[in-house]
């Protein structure tokens, strides 16, 4: 106990009824924190280990004051072009004025938040909108707050509807479906899975390998659900051909297996269609959205299931309440935000923009790859979900750099993306995203409001940086560590 806090025994009875206000910061105090104090608080109360990585990349020196459209503005008035986009959470850009206005109206009108006791006009309208955006009879919606929660609901509805008593779930190598315990079991990462006790009824197959999926399903009648990201985001922007997805649909139909498409990162227009699976002319049995569904202002996740799948799982009065929403599912202002966000997505043709500007980004990156084939290994993706893979330098780093690199953190050895990302931020005011599963891949998921001019700014900066050559890039990074 803190020495200066009086105990209840020391106080007269009436005073003891009042709780002593702890040493709380106010919102104004929070706004005024500088980078040094934020670093101390982050290390003391959030994640000291993570701070180490932020420092390595120079991100700890930045305090974001405001954000608008494609840009952050830091404490020094520097504008930072956002090609990270919160891993696909910012389709509308930062602080879209229509989204802000809808939220403001909601507050000005003293609207209500909790959507549990009474029917909510906002939750029901959002569910209707999501059904309208979804092909086939993907009509039944569960609202939550995160992608993990949406995916938990997706796996649960499919498992119940599969009718298997000991239902097993197939998932893919290199998958990422979230970190809550159920979907963590389907997230193919030793790092994230750690030593946790995971859900046991699962079978892992290589992503994009129809034969492997077919062998698994045919050899085990307990398999009732297949869970796949349509484009693997955390895996480094990996997609599979149309023939694979058509095959997945057929296999699942033949064996009465339910297909769950995780569209948390690749959905919501990111690849140039509302859902990435729409590129392949197939419809899954269940899908999930989150990230940009909250229009960059709210935490909203959604599971969307085919009506018959939903009814099999939760359709009777006996089973209906197994699944009803959590406390904040369909909450008022978040739902209003998501409703306005969906309207903006279509009114401003952001899906079409994603396809058009994304094609320009990929074309320009391929030109840069041709110029620096020894540095860039691959450019891939669709729409504004693009992976830029650098050659692996762990074996081929120039001799002059090896002694200094040997002193660097294990995560950075031989990985160009760390060096390049750090310098894009420091010297070119551009933010990109790294990829946990493949340290050679930079993920580019800018807001869908991105223009061709934004793409040119990014590509010119990358070109300029790469023109300096590997030795200079690595030396520049090492100098920044000393500074
Ligand atoms: C494909 C995919 N599924 C699920 C999730 C989990 O979403 P959340 O972080 O909102 O729980 C993510 C998050 O990155 C994701 O990329």
Write a brief caption for the model.
It is globular and about 70 Å long. Helix 11 runs parallel beside helix 12 (242-254), helix 17 (416-428) crosses helix 18 (452-467) and helix 17 (416-428) packs across helix 19 (470-482).
Description of the molecule:
Helix 3 (about 35-45) packs antiparallel against helix 4. Helices cover about 40% and strands about 15% of the residues. The chain contains 19 helices and 15 strands. A 7-stranded mixed sheet has the order 4-10-9-8-7-5-6, sandwiched between helices. The protein has about 475 residues and is of the alpha/beta class. The two termini are about 40 Å apart.
Notable characteristics:
483 residues, alpha/beta, binds pyridoxal-5'-phosphate, 7-stranded mixed beta sheet, globular
Write the layout of secondary structure elements.
Layout (H helix, E strand, L loop, with lengths): L12 H5 L9 H6 L2 H11 L2 H9 L7 E5 L2 E4 L4 E4 L2 H4 L8 H12 L12 H13 L4 E7 L2 H16 L5 E5 L8 H4 L5 H4 L8 E4 L4 H10 L3 E7 L12 H13 L3 E5 L23 E4 L11 E6 H8 L17 H16 L2 H22 L4 E7 L2 E6 L11 H5 L9 H13 L1 E2 L1 E2 L6 E4 L7 H16 L2 H13 L1
Parallel strand pairs: 3-13, 5-6, 5-7, 7-8, 8-9
Antiparallel strand pairs: 1-2, 2-3, 4-10, 9-10, 11-12, 12-15, 14-15
Helix pairs in contact: 3-4, 6-14, 7-14, 8-13, 11-12, 15-18, 17-18, 17-19
| Fraction of helical residues | 40-55%
Spatial gap, N to C terminus: 40 Å
Which segments are poorly predicted (pLDDT under 50) over 5 or more consecutive residues?
1-6
Rg:
24 Å
- With helices defined by DSSP (H or I, 4 residues minimum), what is the helix count? 19
Which range does the strand content fall in? 5-15%
Number of strands: 15
Order of the strands making up the biggest sheet = 4-10-9-8-7-5-6
**Which structural class is indicated by helix and strand composition?**
alpha/beta
Give the names of the bound compounds: pyridoxal-5'-phosphate
Q: Could you tell me the mean pLDDT? A: 93
Bulk shape: globular
Give a quick account of the main beta sheet: strands, pairing sense, barrel closure. Answer: 7 strands, mixed
């Amino acid at each position: 106990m803190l020495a200066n806090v009086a105990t209840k025994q020391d106080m007269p009875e009436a005073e003891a009824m009042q709780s002593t206000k702890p040493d709380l910061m106010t919102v104004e105090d929070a706004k005024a924190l500088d980078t040094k104090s934020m670093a101390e608080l982050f290390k003391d109360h959030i994640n000291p280990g993570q701070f180490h990585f932020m420092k390595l990349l120079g991100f700890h020196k930045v305090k974001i004051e405001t954000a608008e459209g494609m840009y952050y503005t830091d404490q020094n008035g520097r504008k930072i072009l956002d090609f990270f986009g919160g891993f696909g959470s910012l389709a509308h850009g930062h602080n879209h004025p229509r989204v802000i206005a809808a939220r403001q109206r909601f507050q000005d009108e003293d609207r209500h938040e909790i959507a549990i006791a009474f029917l909510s006009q906002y939750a029901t309208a959002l569910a209707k909108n999501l059904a309208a955006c979804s092909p086939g009879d993907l009509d039944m919606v569960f609202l939550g707050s995160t992608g993990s929660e949406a995916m938990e609901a997706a796996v649960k509805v499919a498992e119940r509807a599969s009718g298997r008593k000991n239902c097993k779930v197939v998932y893919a190598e290199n998958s990422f479906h979230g970190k809550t315990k159920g979907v963590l079991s389907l997230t193919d990462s030793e790092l994230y899975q750690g030593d946790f006790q995971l859900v046991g009824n699962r079978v892992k197959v290589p992503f994009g390998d129809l034969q492997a999926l077919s062998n698994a399903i045919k050899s085990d009648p307990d398999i009732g659900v297949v869970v796949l990201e349509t484009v693997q985001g955390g895996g480094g922007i990996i997609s599979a051909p149309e023939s694979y997805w058509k095959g997945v649909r057929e296999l699942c139909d033949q064996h009465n297996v339910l297909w769950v498409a995780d569209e948390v990162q690749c959905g919501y227009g990111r690849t140039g269609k509302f859902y990435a699976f729409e590129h392949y002319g197939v419809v899954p049995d269940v899908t999930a959205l989150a990230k940009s569904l909250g229009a960059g202002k709210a935490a909203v996740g959604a599971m969307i299931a085919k009506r018959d799948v939903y009814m099999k799982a939760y359709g009777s009065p006996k089973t209906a309440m197994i699944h009803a929403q959590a406390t904040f599912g369909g909450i008022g202002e978040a739902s209003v935000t998501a409703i306005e966000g969906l309207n903006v997505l279509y009114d401003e043709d952001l899906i079409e923009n994603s396809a058009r500007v994304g094609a320009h980004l990929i074309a320009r990156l391929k030109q840069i790859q041709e110029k620096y084939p020894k540095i860039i290994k691959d450019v891939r993706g669709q729409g504004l979900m693009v992976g830029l893979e650098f050659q692996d330098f762990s074996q081929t780093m120039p001799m002059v750099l090896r002694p200094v690199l040997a002193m660097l953190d294990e995560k950075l050895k031989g990985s160009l993306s760390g060096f390049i990302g750090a310098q894009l931020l420091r010297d070119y005011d551009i933010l990109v995203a790294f990829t946990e599963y493949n340290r050679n891949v930079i993920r580019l998921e800018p807001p869908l409001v991105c223009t061709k001019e934004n793409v040119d700014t990014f590509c010119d900066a990358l070109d300029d940086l790469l023109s300096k050559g590997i030795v200079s890039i690595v030396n520049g990074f090492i100098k920044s560590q000393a500074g």
